[in-house]
Amino acid sequence: MSETLATFLASTPLLEEAWRLCSIANTTFPGGYLVEQIGSVAYVAFSGKQMDSGSEQRCRNLVPLDAEDGGPFAPLNRHSQAEEPIKVHNGMLNLFLSMYPGLQIQIAALMGKVKSVVITGHSIGGSTASLSALWILCQLQSTSSPISTVLCITFGSPLLGNEALHRSILRQRWGGNFCHVVSKHDIMPRLLFAEMVNHNSKIQALLHFWQWCMASPHVIVTSLSSQLPDDIKDTVFHCVLKDLELLAQAEDPSESLFWPFGSYVFCCQEGAICVENTVSVIQMMYLTLATGSPSSSINDHLKYGDYVAKVSKQFLKARNFHEEGLPDSSYEAGVALALQSSELTDKEPVQDLGFSMQNSNPRKEVPIMAKYCLQMAQNGDKPNLTAANLAIKLSKIVPFRAEIEWYKACCDEADDQMGYYDSFKLKGGSRRETRVNLNRHKLAGFWNSVILMLENNKLPHDFDRRGKWVNASQFYKLLVEPLDIADYYRTGMHRERGHYMEHGRERRYEIFDKWWRDRSVPEKENKRSKFASLTQDSCFWARVEEAWEWLDNVRSESDVTKRRLLWDLLHKIGMFEKYARELIENKEVSKDVVAKNSSFSRWMEEWKELKSRVQQLPPWFPGFVDGEVVP
Amino acid sequence: MDSHTLGEITGFREELIKKTCSIAMEAHKSPEKPYLVEKSRTSSDVFFSFPGSWSVTHWFTRKPFGAIKIDQSELLSPKGNDKVATSIKSIGRDDLATVNEGFLRRLEMILSSSSLQSEVEKAITEKKQIVFTGHSSAGAIAILATVWFLEQYLKPEKSRLSPLCVTFGSPLVADFIFNHALRRENWSQYFLHFVMRYDIVPRILLAPLSSMEGELQQILYLLNQKEMFPIQGYIAEASKFYETVMRNASALASHAACQLMGNTNPILETVASFIELSPYRPSGTFVFCTGNGKLVVVRNADAILQLLFYSSQLCSENELETVAERSLNNHFDYQSALQESLNMQNVVNLDHLEGLQLSSNGAAAENIATNMALNDLGMSTRARLCLRAGGEHEKQKLINQKRMDMKKADIEAGLAMLEDYKIKSAVCQVGYYDAFKISKDEDDFKANVKRLELTGIWDEIIELLNRYELPEGFESRNDWVELATKYRRIVEPLDIANYYRHAKNEDTGPYMYKGRPRRYKYTQKWREHALRMPVGSSGESCFWAEVEELQLYRTTNPGTFEDIRERILNLERKLEEWIHGKQISNDVFLEGSTFTKWWRSLPLQHQSVSRIQGLMNS
C-alpha cells in the first residue's frame, strides 16, 4: 500500500509542477521564493540556493519554537511544562523569520484568490517550505480563511526539528500536509541524523558545492561530484551512514536529536514508496543509503528532476514482479512490490561499500531489514474496521455511563441536597461511590485508548469530526469531569500539584473541547426554560474550588496593608461570581450547582457575608460595588 | 473454474447479444433518427437503439466532469410531495446518484420529441422482451433509457418483464451510488457492457474536461468517421490524449485502491483535494475483450474500475504510439471481436477475486484459463493486487453483514424486554412513555440501559451504511426492514422522552428537526422504500415528538388554538390511522399520559367534534 499511495501521488500533476517551480526558484530567485497560481491552486516555491546558509546550517543547534509572546507558531505551543519544548534548527528558523514579513504579505494577497496552496522547496528551501506551511496551518486554525488546504512538498530537505515537533504535528493531525520527497542516496535529508562536530569545514564545502551546482543547472550532474575532493565525500558519507545505522538498529529512535515528520516519498529508478511511520522512515533512510556510494550520495541531491520525471511517467507502463517466490498473501505481496519499488530486493547489486560495517555482510542484511521495515509501515489493520470495533466497545461501556447518570439523578434528588459533585466528593469511600468511581476509571481508560489510536493514525482521518464520537465525547466530558475534579480535590492533589485546571486536567478533556469547538454545527442562542441536565462548563467545579481558596485567603489575610494582594483576590472572586451568576441565569448549569447544600451555594453564602463586611470598610476598596470590582 | 459459455455466465442469450451489436452499429448510420426500433422475427425481442453523438458539449455540459445529481431532471427522480422517492439513491443516507448531464438531457429530448415512449408502452402491452442497446455514447443513452424504464414501469409493476441493456464501448454514465442502487434493486444483472482492451471511449470520462480540452473535440471527430479513418495523421494528438486519460485514470484507480486497502495515511485525502477525481464508476456486468478472442466477465465494480485502467497500460515504453492508435481503432472492433469470441467461447468468469493469483505465470491447473486471459488483458502483479483488494472489499461487506445478522437475536431480546417494560408501565395508568420521562424507578434505569445497548447496535449499522460497508441489498432486506420498524416503534418514544426530559429541545431545537437520530430516520426510509410509501408517511414512531411540541406551544402561548389547529387536526387524523393499523398502541390514551392530559386541555368545542373523541372516551 505504501507503493500504491506513491503511485497515486506520482499520477497527480503535483510533484512535477512543484519540482518545475523549485528548479526555477533555484536558478532565478536565489535567496528568495516565487509564487505562481495554477487554476485555483497557488504554488510557493522556495529557492534551495540561499546566500548565507552555510555558516549556521552546519550546526545541529536546536532552538525552541514556542516563543512566550506567541509569534507565528503560537498554536503549536506544547501542552504542559512537563513536556519537552518544540525545537527546530536554529539556522533554518532564522532563514524563515527573515522571509516572514514579506511572506505574510504574499500569502495575505493570495487569500480569496485561491482555494489551496502548495508550498515547496528543494534542499534548504525545503525546510523553509516546511516552516512556512507550518505557519500557514497555524494561521488557518485561528482564522476563518477561504484557503482550505495546504500541502508542503519538499525535495531533499534537511531534517527540521525534534521529537516534540513531530509529536505536535501528529496531534494537530497535520501529518498529511507534509510530503518529503527523498531520492535514493541523497545525503542531505539524512545529514542531521549524524554527529558532525568534527567535520564542519567539510560540510560547509559540501553545501557550497551544492549551492554552486544549483545555480548552474545545465552542468551534467554525473560529472559534478568529481569536482569535490574525495575525502570530503568519503568522510561525510561514512559518518552519516554510521550514525544512521546505529539509529536504524535501535528499537526506539528517541535517541535522535532530529525527528522526521509527515510522509516520506522515497524515489529511485524502479519506482517510489510512501511511508509515514517514523521508525520505517529512519530505516528506509538507512537502508537505501547503505546501497549507495559517497559520490552517488552527493549527486542524488541534485537529481530530483530526473527522479520526478521518471516516477511521474510510471503510470503508463504495466509493471510486473519478475522475481521468483511472490508471496500469496496480498499483504506480503504488497511488501514485496514495495521492496521492488525501492530497489531493495535480493537481486539488487550492492556496490562495494569499501569500508567495514558492523554487519559483516550488508548485502544480505539489507533486504531482510527492508522487508521488516516495510511490513511495519504497512499497517495491517484497516482503520474503518478499527473504528467499527471501537463503536462496539463504546456501546459496551455505555451502561457504565448510564449508571453514573443514574447516580447523578439520585444525588440531585437526595434529601441532603448536596448535589452530584459534593456527594461524590464527600462520600468517596462508600459502596455506591466506589462503584461510580470504578465506572469513571473504565470510561477514562476507554477514551484514552481512543485518543491513542487516533494519534497513531489507526483510525479514519475524519474520525474526530464524526458526529457520533464528537457527541459521545462531549457527553462523557460533561458528565464525568466533575467527578474527576471532585476526586482531585478530595485526595488533596491540588496541594501536591496545584489547581486542577492548570495542573490536573487530563489531556483528553482538552482534546474533546477541541472536537466540540470544531464541529460543523453553528452555535445557536437558545434560552433555556429549566436547568441543563449537565453543567455546560465541565470545569465549573474546579473554578468553585479555586474560588474557595481565594475566599479563605481573603479571610485569613489580616494584614490590611497588603492591599494589592487583597484587591487581586477580590477582583478574581468578583469575576467568578459574575461568571457563575451568568451561567445560572442562562440555566447553563445543572441543578446540582444550586442545590441548597452544594459547595457552590455555601460559597455564595459565605462570600455574601464577607462582602457585607468588606463593604462596611469603605477605605479599603472604594470602587467595590455589588460583586464587581471597578478599578 | 468450470468452462461456460458467455450466455451461461451472463444470462444473456448469445444470439440476442450478436443482434444488439449489429443493431447498435447500424443506428450510427441514421443520425437524423432519434432512435431505431427493430422487432425480432424469431423471438419476442424488441430492440431500441440510438445513434451516437460526438460533440464535446454532449459529453461535458460543464466542468469538471459534466455530472449532475439526478434530481436536476424529472426523468429519473419525479418531484412532488406525495411522490414515492426515486430508487436511484442510497436509502438511509439519501445520497442521490450523479449522472452525466449531457447524456441525460439527450434522453430527455428523445423522449419528449419522439414516439419512443409510446413504442415502449406498446411493447409492454404486447408482452415483448425490451432490449436497449447502443455503441459509443449511444451506449450511455441506452443505459439511462433502461433505468428510466425500470423506474417508470418495472418498479410500479406496470410491466412484469425486465428490460435488458447491452452496450459496446460505452462511456461511463454515473457514479458509485448509481451502481449501489442498481445492485440493491437487483437490476444490475440486466446490464451488459462490452469493452475492448484498449478502447479509449469507456475511459474518457475518467479525466476532467480541463485536462483534455485541446484534444477532445478532435478525437471525438476522429471517432465519428464511419469508415476506417485516417488516424495516421493524428498520432501525436492520439498519444497525448491517451496519456492524459491514462494519467487521470491512474490517479483515480490508485486512489480507489488505497481506500480499498485501508489506507491510514492522511496525505491521501490532502493530495486528493488538490486534483479533480472523476465521480464516474462502472455498474452492471462488464465483458472485457482481450483482442485475441478471449472474454473476461466481471461484476465487481471496484475491480472493473481497476481493469479499465490497468488493461490499457503499455507493456513497454516504445509501445506508446501503437497503443494510442489502437485505443482509437479498438472502438470499432466490437462486431468482429464478438464474432470471433462467440466462436471460440473462451470465456472467464472473474469472481472470487480475493483469491486471485498474483503472479502472471505458473498457475495451478484450474486457474490456467483465468491466468492466461488476465495476461492477455495485460494484468501485471500490481494490477492483480488491486483486483484482489476489490474482491476483499466485497467479501468484507458480507462479513460485516453476517456480524450484524448475528446481533438480530440481541435486538429481539432487547425489544422483548422493553415490550415487558411497556406492559408493566401501562398497569400504573401512565404508559411507558411517561414512566420513562419521569424515570423514578429502577425499572426505568434498566430500560434506559437497554435502550442504550440497542442504540449501540443500531448506530453501528448506520455507521456501516454511511460508509457503504454493507452489501448493497441490506437496506431492502425484508427481515431487517421489519425488525427495524419494530425497533423504531418501541424505542423511539423512549428517545423522545429522554430528549424532552433533559430539555434538549432548548439546546438544539425540536426533536423532529434537530434531535432525531439517524437510526430512526434511516429505518423509516427503509420501510417507506420497501412498501413504496410516499416520502415521510411512516412517521408513527415520532408521534410523541409532535405531542411534546404542541404541548410546549400551548404552554408558551396560553389560550391560543387557531394557530396550531391544522397541526392538531393532522395529528388526530394520523393517530386514528396508526391506532387502527396497530402501529401505535392504546397506551397513549391512559389517564396519566402526556397526550391525554394535553388533549384534555384543548378547547371543549374542539374535543366534542374531534374524530378521536370516541377513542379518547373508550
Strand percent estimate of chain B: 5-15%
Lateral strand order in the biggest sheet of chain A: 1-2-5-6-7-8-9
Q: What gap, in angstroms, lies between the N and C termini of chain B?
A: 69 Å
Rg result of chain B: 29 Å
Helical proportion of chain B, percent range: 40-55%
Mean pLDDT of chain B: 92
Question: What is the beta-strand fraction of chain A?
Answer: 5-15%
Structural class of chain B: alpha/beta
User: How many beta-strand segments of chain B?
Assistant: 10
Q: If you average the pLDDT of chain A, what whole number results?
A: 84
Indicate the multimeric state. heterodimer
Q: Describe the largest sheet of chain B.
A: 8 strands, mixed
Can you count the helices of chain A? 25
Strand order of the largest sheet of chain B: 1-2-5-6-7-8-9-10
Output the number of helix runs of chain B. Answer: 28
Largest interface: A-B, 76 and 70 residues
Shape of chain B: elongated
Separation of the first and last Cα atoms of chain A: 64 Å
Classification by helices and strands of chain A: alpha/beta
Topology:
The complex is a heterodimer of chains A (631) and B (618).
Chain A: H1 2-11, H2 14-28, E1 33-38, E2 41-46, H3 54-57, E3 62-64, E4 87-89, H4 90-110, E5 116-122, H5 124-142, E6 149-155, H6 163-171, E7 178-183, H7 188-191, H8 200-215, H9 221-224, H10 230-249, E8 263-268, E9 271-275, H11 278-290, H12 294-299, H13 304-313, H14 330-341, H15 362-377, H16 383-413, H17 419-426, H18 431-455, H19 467-490, H20 493-497, H21 500-504, H22 507-518, H23 540-556, H24 563-585, H25 599-615, E10 624-625, E11 628-629
Chain B: H1 6-10, H2 14-27, E1 36-39, E2 45-49, H3 56-59, E3 67-69, E4 98-100, H4 101-113, H5 116-125, E5 129-135, H6 137-154, E6 164-168, H7 176-184, E7 191-196, H8 201-204, H9 209-224, H10 235-260, H11 267-272, E8 285-289, E9 294-298, H12 301-310, H13 320-329, H14 334-344, E10 346-350, H15 368-376, H16 381-406, H17 408-427, H18 431-438, H19 442-466, H20 478-501, H21 504-508, H22 511-515, H23 518-530, H24 543-556, H25 565-580, H26 594-600, H27 604-609, H28 613-617
Helix pairs in contact in B: 2-14, 4-6, 9-10, 10-12, 10-13, 12-16, 17-18, 17-19, 17-20, 18-20, 20-23, 20-24, 24-25
